[in-house]
Amino acid sequence: MRSLVEIRRRETRCTRCPELRRYCADIARTRKREFASERYWGRPVPSSGSADARVLLVGLAPAAHGGNRTGRMFTGDGSATWLARALHKAGFATQSTSERRDDGFELLDVFMTAALRCAPPKNKPTPRQIANCAGHMRAELALLRRLRVVVGLGKIGFDVALARLKERGFAIPSPKPRFGHGAEYELASSDETITLVGCFHPSRQNTNTGKLTAAMLDAVFLRVRQIARARNPR
Protein backbone atom coordinates (compact mmCIF):
# COMPACT_ATOMS: atom_id res chain seq x y z
CA MET A 1 0.00 0.00 0.00
CA ARG A 2 1.36 3.40 -0.97
CA SER A 3 1.98 6.06 1.67
CA LEU A 4 0.10 9.35 1.62
CA VAL A 5 3.33 11.15 0.71
CA GLU A 6 3.79 8.88 -2.31
CA ILE A 7 0.16 9.23 -3.37
CA ARG A 8 0.41 13.02 -3.32
CA ARG A 9 3.68 12.95 -5.20
CA ARG A 10 2.03 10.87 -7.91
CA GLU A 11 -0.93 13.24 -8.00
CA THR A 12 1.20 16.32 -8.63
CA ARG A 13 3.10 14.53 -11.42
CA CYS A 14 0.05 13.06 -13.15
CA THR A 15 -0.15 13.49 -16.95
CA ARG A 16 -3.19 11.30 -17.72
CA CYS A 17 -5.13 14.21 -19.23
CA PRO A 18 -2.73 16.18 -21.47
CA GLU A 19 -5.45 18.65 -22.42
CA LEU A 20 -5.95 19.57 -18.76
CA ARG A 21 -2.23 19.90 -18.20
CA ARG A 22 -2.03 22.31 -21.13
CA TYR A 23 -5.03 24.29 -19.91
CA CYS A 24 -3.68 24.66 -16.35
CA ALA A 25 -0.23 25.59 -17.65
CA ASP A 26 -1.76 28.23 -19.94
CA ILE A 27 -3.72 29.70 -17.00
CA ALA A 28 -0.54 29.77 -14.93
CA ARG A 29 1.31 31.56 -17.68
CA THR A 30 -1.30 34.19 -18.58
CA ARG A 31 -2.66 34.62 -15.01
CA LYS A 32 -5.51 36.79 -13.83
CA ARG A 33 -4.85 40.52 -13.60
CA GLU A 34 -5.58 40.41 -9.87
CA PHE A 35 -2.76 37.88 -9.41
CA ALA A 36 -0.44 39.06 -12.18
CA SER A 37 2.56 39.34 -9.85
CA GLU A 38 2.14 35.85 -8.38
CA ARG A 39 3.69 32.60 -9.49
CA TYR A 40 0.95 30.04 -10.13
CA TRP A 41 1.18 26.41 -9.03
CA GLY A 42 -0.06 25.27 -12.46
CA ARG A 43 0.13 21.53 -11.73
CA PRO A 44 -2.28 18.85 -10.48
CA VAL A 45 -3.34 19.77 -6.93
CA PRO A 46 -2.95 17.04 -4.29
CA SER A 47 -5.36 16.16 -1.51
CA SER A 48 -4.99 17.68 1.94
CA GLY A 49 -5.62 16.51 5.47
CA SER A 50 -4.59 13.54 7.58
CA ALA A 51 -5.22 9.86 6.80
CA ASP A 52 -6.76 9.33 10.25
CA ALA A 53 -9.61 11.77 9.50
CA ARG A 54 -13.19 10.65 10.12
CA VAL A 55 -14.63 13.02 7.51
CA LEU A 56 -13.94 13.06 3.77
CA LEU A 57 -14.83 16.05 1.57
CA VAL A 58 -15.09 15.41 -2.17
CA GLY A 59 -15.19 18.51 -4.35
CA LEU A 60 -15.26 19.01 -8.11
CA ALA A 61 -11.78 20.25 -9.03
CA PRO A 62 -9.26 23.00 -8.21
CA ALA A 63 -10.37 26.43 -9.39
CA ALA A 64 -8.35 27.92 -12.25
CA HIS A 65 -7.29 30.92 -10.14
CA GLY A 66 -7.78 29.22 -6.76
CA GLY A 67 -6.16 25.83 -6.24
CA ASN A 68 -4.41 25.97 -9.62
CA ARG A 69 -2.78 29.19 -8.41
CA THR A 70 -2.11 28.36 -4.76
CA GLY A 71 -1.44 24.62 -4.96
CA ARG A 72 -3.97 23.73 -2.27
CA MET A 73 -7.59 22.73 -2.76
CA PHE A 74 -10.23 25.29 -1.80
CA THR A 75 -7.66 27.99 -1.23
CA GLY A 76 -7.58 31.54 -2.53
CA ASP A 77 -10.98 31.88 -4.17
CA GLY A 78 -14.62 32.59 -3.37
CA SER A 79 -15.49 28.96 -2.66
CA ALA A 80 -12.61 28.78 -0.20
CA THR A 81 -13.93 31.82 1.66
CA TRP A 82 -17.23 30.10 2.31
CA LEU A 83 -15.90 26.64 3.00
CA ALA A 84 -13.08 27.65 5.34
CA ARG A 85 -15.44 29.72 7.49
CA ALA A 86 -17.94 26.86 7.77
CA LEU A 87 -15.26 24.26 8.54
CA HIS A 88 -13.73 26.42 11.23
CA LYS A 89 -17.12 27.11 12.82
CA ALA A 90 -17.80 23.37 13.00
CA GLY A 91 -14.37 22.66 14.51
CA PHE A 92 -12.90 21.12 11.36
CA ALA A 93 -10.21 23.74 10.64
CA THR A 94 -7.65 25.75 12.58
CA GLN A 95 -8.82 29.10 11.20
CA SER A 96 -11.65 30.63 9.18
CA THR A 97 -9.62 31.69 6.13
CA SER A 98 -7.77 29.71 3.45
CA GLU A 99 -5.83 32.07 1.20
CA ARG A 100 -2.44 30.49 0.48
CA ARG A 101 -0.48 27.34 1.31
CA ASP A 102 1.55 28.90 4.13
CA ASP A 103 -1.25 30.83 5.85
CA GLY A 104 -1.68 28.46 8.82
CA PHE A 105 -4.95 26.91 7.66
CA GLU A 106 -5.08 23.22 8.51
CA LEU A 107 -7.88 20.68 8.41
CA LEU A 108 -8.90 18.96 11.63
CA ASP A 109 -10.38 15.45 11.35
CA VAL A 110 -11.10 16.13 7.65
CA PHE A 111 -9.50 14.81 4.48
CA MET A 112 -10.13 16.90 1.36
CA THR A 113 -9.99 15.56 -2.18
CA ALA A 114 -11.77 16.10 -5.50
CA ALA A 115 -13.09 14.35 -8.59
CA LEU A 116 -10.28 16.01 -10.59
CA ARG A 117 -6.82 17.18 -9.56
CA CYS A 118 -6.66 19.65 -12.45
CA ALA A 119 -8.87 22.65 -13.18
CA PRO A 120 -11.12 21.87 -16.17
CA PRO A 121 -12.30 24.54 -18.63
CA LYS A 122 -15.57 26.12 -17.46
CA ASN A 123 -15.53 23.75 -14.44
CA LYS A 124 -16.98 21.01 -16.64
CA PRO A 125 -14.94 17.81 -16.53
CA THR A 126 -15.62 15.08 -19.05
CA PRO A 127 -16.46 11.50 -18.01
CA ARG A 128 -13.12 10.38 -19.42
CA GLN A 129 -11.23 12.92 -17.31
CA ILE A 130 -13.08 11.81 -14.18
CA ALA A 131 -12.26 8.19 -14.98
CA ASN A 132 -8.59 9.06 -15.56
CA CYS A 133 -8.41 10.70 -12.13
CA ALA A 134 -10.30 8.00 -10.23
CA GLY A 135 -7.19 6.04 -9.35
CA HIS A 136 -5.93 8.82 -7.11
CA MET A 137 -9.04 8.73 -4.93
CA ARG A 138 -8.98 4.93 -4.83
CA ALA A 139 -5.46 5.07 -3.42
CA GLU A 140 -6.50 7.72 -0.86
CA LEU A 141 -9.53 5.75 0.30
CA ALA A 142 -7.36 2.72 0.94
CA LEU A 143 -5.59 4.74 3.65
CA LEU A 144 -8.67 6.29 5.29
CA ARG A 145 -9.37 3.54 7.81
CA ARG A 146 -11.28 5.69 10.35
CA LEU A 147 -13.64 7.25 7.85
CA ARG A 148 -17.23 7.71 9.06
CA VAL A 149 -18.74 10.53 6.94
CA VAL A 150 -18.30 11.45 3.29
CA VAL A 151 -19.52 14.84 2.05
CA GLY A 152 -20.12 15.31 -1.66
CA LEU A 153 -19.77 19.00 -2.54
CA GLY A 154 -22.02 19.35 -5.56
CA LYS A 155 -23.55 16.60 -7.69
CA ILE A 156 -20.30 15.57 -9.35
CA GLY A 157 -18.49 15.29 -6.03
CA PHE A 158 -21.42 13.32 -4.60
CA ASP A 159 -21.66 10.92 -7.55
CA VAL A 160 -17.91 10.34 -7.67
CA ALA A 161 -17.81 9.66 -3.92
CA LEU A 162 -20.65 7.17 -4.29
CA ALA A 163 -18.88 5.37 -7.13
CA ARG A 164 -15.61 5.08 -5.23
CA LEU A 165 -17.38 3.82 -2.07
CA LYS A 166 -19.19 1.18 -4.12
CA GLU A 167 -15.83 0.00 -5.46
CA ARG A 168 -14.58 -0.23 -1.89
CA GLY A 169 -17.34 -2.71 -1.05
CA PHE A 170 -20.12 -0.54 0.35
CA ALA A 171 -23.63 -1.66 -0.58
CA ILE A 172 -25.64 0.98 -2.42
CA PRO A 173 -29.20 1.42 -1.10
CA SER A 174 -32.18 1.06 -3.41
CA PRO A 175 -33.35 3.38 -4.79
CA LYS A 176 -29.90 4.71 -5.59
CA PRO A 177 -28.86 7.75 -3.52
CA ARG A 178 -29.56 11.03 -5.28
CA PHE A 179 -27.75 14.29 -4.68
CA GLY A 180 -29.51 16.93 -2.63
CA HIS A 181 -28.42 19.51 -0.11
CA GLY A 182 -28.46 17.87 3.32
CA ALA A 183 -29.43 14.46 1.93
CA GLU A 184 -28.06 11.57 4.01
CA TYR A 185 -27.56 7.93 3.08
CA GLU A 186 -26.07 5.09 5.12
CA LEU A 187 -23.79 2.77 3.19
CA ALA A 188 -22.67 -0.46 4.84
CA SER A 189 -19.86 -2.85 4.06
CA SER A 190 -19.06 -6.14 5.76
CA ASP A 191 -17.47 -4.41 8.74
CA GLU A 192 -18.35 -0.71 8.78
CA THR A 193 -20.98 1.91 8.00
CA ILE A 194 -20.40 5.28 6.38
CA THR A 195 -22.85 8.16 5.98
CA LEU A 196 -22.83 9.90 2.60
CA VAL A 197 -24.03 13.52 2.80
CA GLY A 198 -24.87 15.89 -0.04
CA CYS A 199 -24.03 19.59 0.10
CA PHE A 200 -24.38 22.35 -2.46
CA HIS A 201 -20.96 23.37 -3.73
CA PRO A 202 -19.91 26.76 -2.26
CA SER A 203 -19.32 28.19 -5.74
CA ARG A 204 -20.20 31.77 -6.53
CA GLN A 205 -22.94 30.45 -8.79
CA ASN A 206 -24.64 29.11 -5.67
CA THR A 207 -23.63 31.65 -3.03
CA ASN A 208 -24.22 34.79 -5.11
CA THR A 209 -27.70 33.64 -6.08
CA GLY A 210 -28.76 32.60 -2.58
CA LYS A 211 -29.12 28.95 -3.55
CA LEU A 212 -26.60 28.29 -0.78
CA THR A 213 -26.57 30.45 2.35
CA ALA A 214 -24.09 30.49 5.22
CA ALA A 215 -26.74 29.00 7.51
CA MET A 216 -27.34 26.13 5.07
CA LEU A 217 -23.63 25.36 4.85
CA ASP A 218 -23.22 25.55 8.62
CA ALA A 219 -26.13 23.17 9.16
CA VAL A 220 -24.52 20.51 6.98
CA PHE A 221 -21.17 20.60 8.76
CA LEU A 222 -22.68 20.72 12.22
CA ARG A 223 -24.63 17.60 11.26
CA VAL A 224 -21.47 15.99 9.88
CA ARG A 225 -19.68 16.67 13.18
CA GLN A 226 -22.56 15.09 15.08
CA ILE A 227 -22.48 11.93 12.97
CA ALA A 228 -18.69 11.58 13.11
CA ARG A 229 -18.55 11.95 16.87
CA ALA A 230 -21.43 9.56 17.49
CA ARG A 231 -19.96 6.87 15.27
CA ASN A 232 -16.35 7.06 16.36
CA PRO A 233 -15.63 9.38 19.30
CA ARG A 234 -11.99 10.33 19.83
Folded structure, characterized:
The protein is α/β, with parallel strands linked by helices and 234 residues long. The chain has one domain (4-231): Uracil-DNA Glycosylase, subunit E (3-Layer(aba) Sandwich), CATH 3.40.470.10. It is built from 8 helices and 6 strands. The protein has helices at 4-12, 18-30, 67-70, 78-89, 127-143, 154-167, 204-207, 214-231; strands at residues 48-49, 55-59, 110-114, 149-153, 184-188, 193-199. The protein has a 6-stranded mixed beta sheet, sandwiched between helices. Helix 1 (4-12) packs antiparallel against helix 5, helix 4 (78-89) crosses helix 8 and helix 5 crosses helix 6 (154-167). The longest helix has 18 residues, at 214-231. It is globular. The two termini are 25 Å apart. The model has no long low-confidence stretch (mean pLDDT 96).
Features of the shown structure:
234 residues, alpha/beta, Uracil-DNA Glycosylase, subunit E, 39% helix, globular
SSE order and pairing:
Elements: H1 4-12, H2 18-30, E1 48-49, E2 55-59, H3 67-70, H4 78-89, E3 110-114, H5 127-143, E4 149-153, H6 154-167, E5 184-188, E6 193-199, H7 204-207, H8 214-231
Parallel strand pairs: 2-3, 2-4, 4-6
Antiparallel strand pairs: 1-3, 5-6
Helix pairs in contact: 1-5, 4-8, 5-6
Low-pLDDT residue intervals, each spanning 5 or more residues:
none
Structural class: alpha/beta
Output the CATH topology: Uracil-DNA Glycosylase, subunit E
For the termini, the CA-CA separation is 25 Å
Please report the first level of CATH classification, the CATH class: Alpha Beta
Task: Give me the strand/helix succession.
Answer: HHEEHHEHEHEEHH
How many separate helices?
8
Report the sheet with the most strands, covering strand number, pairing sense and barrel closure. Answer: 6 strands, mixed
Q: What shape does the CA trace take?
A: globular
**Number of domains as seen in the coordinates:** 1
Q: What name goes with the CATH superfamily?
A: Uracil-DNA glycosylase-like domain
> What's the average pLDDT?
96
Number of strands: 6
The fraction of residues assigned to DSSP E strands is 5-15%
CA-based gyration radius:
17 Å
Helix coverage percent:
25-40%
User: If classified by CATH, what would the architecture be?
Assistant: 3-Layer(aba) Sandwich
